[in-house]
Design a protein that fits this description.
Elements (H helix, E strand, L loop, with lengths): L2 H49 L2 H14 L11 E5 L3 E5 L5 E17 L6 E18 L4 E9 L6 E13 L2 E9 L4 H4 L12 H6 L3 E10 L3 E8 L24 E14 L18 E13 L11 E12 L3 E13 L8 E15 L3 E11 L8 E12 L5 E10 L22 E12 L1
Antiparallel strand pairs: 1-2, 2-3, 3-4, 3-18, 4-5, 5-6, 6-7, 7-8, 8-9, 9-10, 10-11, 11-12, 12-13, 13-14, 14-15, 15-16, 16-17, 17-18
Length: about 450
Amino acid sequence: MNSRIRIGWTAAGLGMVIAATAVAGSDGVDARLAAIEAQIAQLKQESASWLNTAQTHALVRDALADSESRASLLAEGPLAGYREGKGFFLSNEDGSFDVNFYGYAMFRGVYNDKDAPDSSTFGFENSITKFGAFGHAGSPDLTYRLQVAFDPATGAAVLDDFFATWSLGQGWSWSWGQVKAPFIREQVMSDHVQLLVDRSYVTALTSIGRVQGTWLSYENETLRFWLSFNDGNRIPSLSAPHVQSRNTPFNADGTEWALTARTEVMLAGDDWKQFADFASWSTDEFGALVGAAVHWQDGEYGSIAFPEETEVFTWTLDTMLEFGGANLAAWVVGVHTNPNATAAAEYDQFGFVVQGGVHLVPDKFEIFGRYEWFDFDNFASLDDLSIITAGFNYYFRRHGWKWTTDIVYALDSVPTSVGFTSLLADGPVDEGQIALRTQMQVAIP
């Protein structure tokens, strides 16, 4: 059939359609249009009904959950987003580089009452504000952590931690950098997972704090330990807070060498994460952990600034128990100091801490108490010190959003203000100091 014939047939068909339409009249066209509009309206109604079904909502939630940790779904390029328990992150396509961000801040109101001078003091403070990042670089076997703290007095940013860890396999790893010495467990735990408003006076007085050095570590399902070669405390003195050696050059740390070793055994529990904080949650199984640590350091040899080469040996034993909503922890610490000076005697100091808490409302409202005691061994004419603390935690979102309030009562004269315990130095015959503390905390993740 040639093109002229096809054109003819097409024209004839078109004419028949036009004629039929004319015969049907305008009423037929309107009826057809009304039927089509009704069908469209019905389809819209069915579509809206489908979008509102529970199955559809569940499907959307599943899709969002699948992509919640990915801001980019491209075949190539970086990934970014939020991971539960790790916070905001950045990663490359093959996962060889990874960085996770975190931070926490604590705002506190404190009332202190002591005998003299300035017997009554009230005020607010940004006690702790810190941000950090952790992840791996080039390979999951090379991990790192960086943490910056803001000085509560000046607001200046100060390097807290920076260290890298190389996994050697079979549970072994080697690390180097600046970090807390693996000594008293309460000090090693992060600021935002403490049970009370702040750490104990005994821990603040005797902890090694942050050091610069290198360490070997091992971990399996029930045992872990650390062995660290570091620069110790810059000025070992127990009549006042230890001055940490963080951010100091090699010739200004005040020690020739220092060794720190710690070991922990998990007797019962889910895993090591269960003992990452002092709180015990309703979902936790019974957990029991025991630990021990020693620290030994010697003063700088031939130093004009530190001529006496003071030698310090410190030890601690500790335990933690968790009961699925209740917790108990205790530790003892002993310190032997040899000033190596003709007119200065050696002295041995000893202290212990017992604390515990129980949830009255599961995972929401918790009450706690703590007793601590320290014997100064008559160093600088100091005798001993007893402190009682009691209070509560209200967990809005566990440690991510927490309100803590407690009252601290020092039964004896407080020789010095140390850390952020909110206790101030008393006079030689003063005693019975009280501090009321309330703190709001936020943390990511």
